[in-house]
From TrEMBL, chain B:
Highest classification ranks of the organism: Bacteria, Pseudomonadati, Myxococcota, Polyangia, Nannocystales
TM spans (from-to): 128-152, 172-198, 219-240
Name this protein carries in UniProt: ABC transporter permease
InterPro entries: Permease_MalE
Keyword line: Membrane, Transmembrane, Transmembrane helix
Signal sequence coordinates: none
Length: 260, 241
């Protein structure tokens, strides 16, 4: 039964900061085991959307279901609600836009952190898993380095390794490809596809990169001015005649998406 | 209001099981051992200063033998605990606030939340324990160093009889005074830690590096002011009967 539950369901989610209306009635259903690439110009609320998904922010109205469970109904001020929220978050791995590595820990400890917190693994198993995952993201023998010694792209890859260390069911990636060179970003795309195939993970990937959307997406969404302009299976979205999505894919300045 | 809410969450985190060991040890070492050089230097001068001041005042009516009394009461009951709290508090508070604020603006605190780890348990609780336990030790240490400095200045520089000095100290300073100093240390330590953690924790991502500066600044100022004000009330409570 649980397999049929959509991974993520949004029902008319709204979020404003003061007068700044960031998300307006965003609704979508993402089936389990699919890759959603969410496109959109910067500042349209893509990161805010991810934060709402993991309960870091609470929508002003609307509901969010993760594998059928309503996370907007949890009251984090109560300890029971907080525990449920924590239980729910263990389904997620999240790659933050700037990595959010713990800068007082070395790379190895960063990737091992979620394992030490939640997995019943011996230190040896953890070390093996850390090495394996770092290798997956194209990094070798960096365990003892501190995050400050790495380039931005390397930090992001370490953060990705940390996000998938516990083999979560849903992985949220906030602009994994920005700041990476094209080869590395293609490698990361392959990695996402590989994890998706072998472990059946669901991915929500935020990106500006339409090539990335073409390569990895099962579903594509376009967020603009807080509204979900377009959402659906890739083939359907790519055939769409809607102006905004075409403008994004054509890299044109001419269309409904305005720079100002 | 927000502060009280933070205090409530912090207390819950602090008393729900032992704090994470590594974090606790790291902050205890930094707060305790890290404060020693500065505290030693300043209490030596403060202790000598007490002797100088007392001698200058008392010698006029031939009361230089009362030096031990003055240095004992003034130093151990009042000066050293407050000095330890304000000096070490500034040092420790700045470190705590800056580290937490930096974690906030770089989303590390949110990363913990997403990894289903309670930042209050992992970050705030060990800092509270570390400083609450270390500050009383620092107070005790400051008592010893300060008194030794007073003694040295009084006997070597002003020719006061060493035996008389110590007799007076023993006369006026009781074990309960030392205990009161340690008690003050516990209170000041917790206060410095909670105020500093609060300001650090409150930093927002959009404030960036400036937010770290603001948090650090507030942590230092607020904990120093609170310690000095509270010291008066604690003294009234402990010594006036
Ligand atoms: N914590 C916050 N407080 C106030 N405004 C915020 C906050 N987080 C984001 N915003 C605003 O929400 C809008 C969308 O931000 P964001 O989701 O980060 O955009 P992006 O699509 O580039 O990821 C921006 O206008 C930003 O100023
Ligand atoms: Mg963003």
């Amino acid at each position: 039964m649980a397999e049929q539950q959509p991974a993520i369901t949004l029902e008319r989610v709204c979020k404003s900061f003061g007068n700044n209306r960031v998300l307006h009635e965003v609704s979508l259903v993402l089936p389990a085991g699919k890759i959603l690439v969410m496109l959109g110009p910067s500042g349209t609320g893509k990161s805010v959307l991810l934060r709402c998904l993991v309960g870091l922010m609470k929508p002003d109205s609307g509901r969010i279901f993760v594998e059928g469970q309503d996370i907007t109904a949890l009251d984090e001020r109560r300890s029971a609600g907080r525990e449920q929220m924590f239980a729910l978050r263990r389904k997620f791995g999240m790659l933050f836009q700037d990595g959010a590595l713990f800068d007082d820990m070395c790379v190895g400890d960063n990737v091992a952190f979620p394992l030490r917190q939640h997995a019943k693994m011996s230190e040896r198993q953890i070390a093996e898993r850390v090495a394996e995952d770092l290798e997956r993201v194209g990094l070798k023998n960096v365990q003892r380095k501190m995050p400050a010694e790495l380039s931005g792209g390397m930090r992001k890859r370490v953060a990705f390794a940390r996000a998938i260390a516990l083999r979560p069911r849903i992985v949220l990636c906030d602009e994994p490809s920005s700041g990476l060179d094209p080869v590395m970003s293609a490698t990361l795309d392959e990695l996402i596809l590989d994890l998706h195939r072998s472990l059946n993970m669901t991915f929500v990937v935020i990106s500006h990169d339409t090539a990335e959307a073409r390569t990895i997406a099962d579903y594509i969404g376009l967020l603009y001015k807080g509204e979900l302009q377009e959402f659906g299976p890739k083939e359907q979205v790519l055939r769409s005649s809607r102006l905004a999505i075409n403008q994004f894919f054509d890299r044109s300045t001419d269309g409904p998406i305005q720079v100002l | 209001m927000e502060f009280l809410h933070f205090v409530r969450r912090a207390l819950v985190a602090q008393f729900s099981g032992p704090p994470p060991r590594d974090e606790f040890v790291r902050h205890a070492l930094d707060a305790g051992v890290g404060s020693l050089p500065l505290l030693t230097l300043l209490t030596i001068f403060a202790g000598m200063n007490l002797s100088v001041q007392a001698y200058g005042t008392f010698v006029r009516f031939g009361g230089q033998d009362l030096l031990g009394l003055f240095c004992g009461v003034g130093g151990i009951r009042e000066l050293y605990p407050v000095m330890a709290a304000v000096i070490c508090g500034a040092r420790i508070g700045a470190t705590l606030a800056a580290s937490l604020a930096n974690m906030q603006i770089s989303e590390q605190v949110e990363a913990l939340e997403v990894m289903a780890v309670d930042p209050m348990r992992l970050l705030v609780a060990p800092r509270l324990w570390a400083v609450t336990l270390m500050l009383p030790l620092l107070c005790g240490y400051a008592d010893v160093v300060g008194l030794a400095a007073s003694y040295w200045a009084a006997t070597e520089q002003m020719g006061v009889n060493g035996g008389t000095f110590m007799e007076q100290v023993r006369d006026i300073v009781h074990l309960s005074d030392l205990a009161a100093g340690v008690f003050k240390g516990v209170v000041f330590g917790w206060l410095v830690a909670i105020v500093s953690c609060y300001h650090g924790y409150r930093a927002l991502k959009r404030d960036g590096a400036e937010g770290v500066g603001v948090a650090t600044n507030r942590a230092i100022v607020h904990s120093a002011v609170l310690c000095i004000v509270l010291n008066m009330f604690l003294s009234a409570l402990l010594y006036v009967r």
